[in-house]
Amino acid sequence: MTATMRTATTVAARAVGVTKVYGSGEAKVTALDGVSVDIERGRFTAIMGPSGSGKSTLMHCLAGLDDVDGGEVFVGDTRVTGLKDKGLTDLRRMKVGFIFQQFNLLPTLTAEENIVLPLAIGGRKVDREWFDTVIDTVGLRDRLSHRPTQLSGGQQQRVACARALVSRPEVVFADEPTGNLDSTSGAEVLGFLQRSAQEFGQTVVMVTHDANAASYADRVIFLADGRIVSELVEPTAEVVLDTMKHLDGVIAR
Amino acid sequence: MIKATLKSLMARKLRLLLSGLAVVLGVMFVSGSFVLTDTLDRSFTSLFSSVYTGVDAQVTAKPKLEGGEGGPDYAVQSLPASTLDTVRGVDGVRAVTGDVIGSARAIGKNGKVLTTSGAPRVGDAWGEDLSGQRVLREGRAPTADNEVVLGGFLAKSGGFSVGDDVAVLTAAPKETFEVVGIFGYQGGRDSLGGEMSLSFSPATAHRVLLGEPDTYSSITVQAADGVSQDVVRDRVAAAVGADVQVKTGAELAKAQTDAIGEGLKFFNYILLGFAGIALFVGTFIIFNTFSIIVAQRTKELALMRAMGASRKQMMVSVVLEALVIGVIASVVGLGAGVGVGALLATLFATFGGGSLQLAAVGLPAAAVISSFAVGILVTMAASVFPAVRASRIAPVAAMREAATPDRPLTKPTVAGAVLSAAGGALLGVGLANAVLWMVFSGILVAFLGVALLTPLISKPVVAVIGGLLSWSMPGTLGRRNSARNPRRTAITAAALMVGIALITGVSIILTSATASITKVADTQISADLIISGEQQATFEPAVLDAVKATPGVESAFGFYSDYAVVNGEQQYLQAITDFSAWQRLFGLKATAGSFDGAAGRTVAVAEETAKEKGLGVGSAVTVQLSKGEQQTYTVAVVYAKNGAMDGIQLSAAAAVDFSQAKLTDGFAKAAAGTSVADVQKRIEPLFADNPEVSVQDRSAYVKQQAAQLDTVLLMVQILLALAILIAVLGVINTLALSVIERTRELGLLRAIGMRRSQIMRMITVESVVISVFGALLGLLVGTGLGVATVEALKDQGITELGFPWTQMGTYLAVAAVVGVVAAILPAIRAARLNVLNAISYE
């Protein structure tokens, strides 16, 4: 089962020569400087880099949350660059899932309602079997009728993960998903993201500055000054940390 | 600290603009009212001083009655020519004219009587004009019996020119005259103040206006040089004796100005009342805005506390913010009010008769003082509670996750129940004893009480309303959002409630009045045809005799109406041509004495009135009418009052001494087996010469009466529209603040695939839920107010309770539309949010 899913290792998202510039004149900042990267389908990819390296910008551009000043972005076979609001909305509805550092659950909805919200918005039916699988994986079965305020931070983030997964998007983008969690809860969430790639073939892209978090990924891409400077495959935390230190050194020099 | 306050005020100017706007509109209403009435007051003062230019003193017969309001415009009794001679001989009198003045209504080319909007329609004798203001523009003076000259305003309104024929109604039956000239006034004016005037030859004037030759309605005196008005008045008064009164031109101008001034003052009170309602609603909005802002700024305020700001400083910071808004809003509102007042004065002068010369628009001190007082007080008062709340924020809140804790609703609910009960009690006592201030303050307190109860009510009601609208995900989210801050939703809805409750209350009272009229007409009046006219329209008693003689008429009677002093008390009453026909056609029941066979000077009294005045059958009553001497009448019958008749009525013998011995109303009953429509067709030609009077069947008559009430309702609706508009601003404001507060959520919804149109729908649902909730509250409270008032007015003839279902439904529908409209701007704003910025919004 797992094997059949992984045979289709093609590209789930792709950036080609993406450039992103903020401001103009003196205050001009080049956040991305001709970045090209392929995100492989069914794998867990981490994007790392120091503050201001452009890692978040890269993710936002890949997800269609931000437009690019140069180059092209694709999600699956959709060309994201140039899409108008309606096209972008469709993309977010059908092909993309998000997990944020701030959880971003709707306080007026229960956990279950939050999880199925993307489907409800798009007027799609909930695949009960898949829903059950996701719920059991994140371990929220007994919390479904709770409101976000009645849940711990870790539980809230697991609801957010389930929400991202339930619509089976092409790619799940996670922006510092463990930034607001203690280490135990963070480990749970990371483990869950790892399993969804390994067991369900879900493509996951995660931005993080935490070496330990990055070590859960199949592949780590390092950004500095808006460029991809390094890449690791199936790394350990130590290796990631070393690479980071090296990068800091490069920048310091 | 003050600097920080002002800075935060500047940073949130958009959010405060809407709440400021609520105050601006209210203050505008206040200052506009003052500016309007002040301008009109000065215009009328100058009008009347110009009317009495060249009049040093005026001699008239002393009226038998005090000038009752709505009484005749002209001297009822005339002066003999001998008085003119006496006055002419008085030392210090330079010139004298005998005036012949009376009501004269020209009939337009379409056969309808030409009307002014309140200014007199008057005829006089063309002759020497002591004021020197009249100017003959074209043609010549009237000399023959059938000639007339028209005032410019009348000629223009009726489209008459020299050579045309014009039919005129006066004290005499309709007559047709030839227009031989047209006159105006100095300065190219068509009239002095919107009046329609025409002049006959002196002989004709005597005949048609006064009914007899050699008499005058007044005598105008001009003093010789060096003799003051007061001196000439006193000398003339000494010469003419006690039955005649003399007044100086200045006194007359002042009396007329004062009479108009009284009316304007009343008008001003009404406008200010509505301004008060608008400001009351504005208070809700400001209160809500400050509450929301304080809640949103919890972290910032807590941080200030953590850094050492005192509680007092926190309070001062919020109140100071209110002060700044209050001052700015008052200034803007005052300015806008001057504009609105000037505009309304111009409209009044234009549509109110054409040629009222408007005085320059001024800025009365009352407008300035009340604008600032009201604008600043309202804003500050509304900010006190939020300010106290701000001062209670604990410094530790700076460290906590910003969340709006669900505070318990016990306190406001208890306070609301107490206030509602107190308001209701005050209203009840006020209505029962007809104490106006108690009624108004009762309503006000009840509104506050209900407003405090609304958060509690809002939960279930909003769930139900929302349930109807949440067939899709955006709808569900909108519904949940509106249930999220019960206080916020409740206060926003309560602001809308006030306007809708008042409109509903008034509608119920008026509908009940209409229902009562209908009931009276259907169950008590058995007359089939009702002859009545526009205000002060009359018809000859001979015509009533002709009605009686018409084939198919079983019986008919009519009445004369005038003021009279009965046992020392002035009142408006009727003289009835035929007591027994009256009894039958109005379904009256005698409780003592009899309607039949009453002859001579007799009186009919309703039972309650008899009890009040201590009268019974056989009692003597003294009656002073407009003319003649005081007479003694005898009570012939005491009857049980019904919806159609109440008070005191005189027998027909009194009519000769009424100011006009002509009938104001007539009633006829068709003989059994005769078609009412046929009888109506036969009677109508009798009134062909009198277009002011119409013959209607019962249902048409009731409809006409109801139509007058509809006009009242329309006026109230227009005046309350501002209160509703302010409430709409409140809905917009609340939504706009909520959109800002929920920026992150909106960003998330967009990120997970919500379309712009869905976001807009979500906000629209929230808005409609709030508006419909407010309207439902308003309908409920308004029904309470209306029913209570109708109950209290039972003795005044409103016996039926009627519900204006269509109107109530309309108000609800309007509220839904209002909700949609109010959502437009906040929804666009929400839909346009940049997803990325929104989701990282702190």
UniProtKB/TrEMBL annotation, chain B:
It comes from the Bacteria. It is a multi-pass membrane protein. It is found in: Cell membrane. Residues 274-395, 718-834 form the ABC3 transporter permease C-terminal domain. InterPro entries: ABC3_permease_C (IPR003838), MacB_PCD (IPR025857), Macrolide_Exporter_MacB (IPR050250). Keywords: Cell membrane, Membrane, Transmembrane, Transmembrane helix. The chain crosses the membrane at residues 266-295, 316-349, 361-385, 414-437, 443-469, 490-510, 712-740, 761-788, 808-828. GO terms for molecular function: transmembrane transporter activity. One of its GO terms (cellular component) is plasma membrane. Residues 18-238, 489-685 form the MacB-like periplasmic core domain. Pfam families: FtsX, MacB_PCD. Belongs to the ABC-4 integral membrane protein family. This is FtsX-like permease family protein. It comes from Umezawaea endophytica.
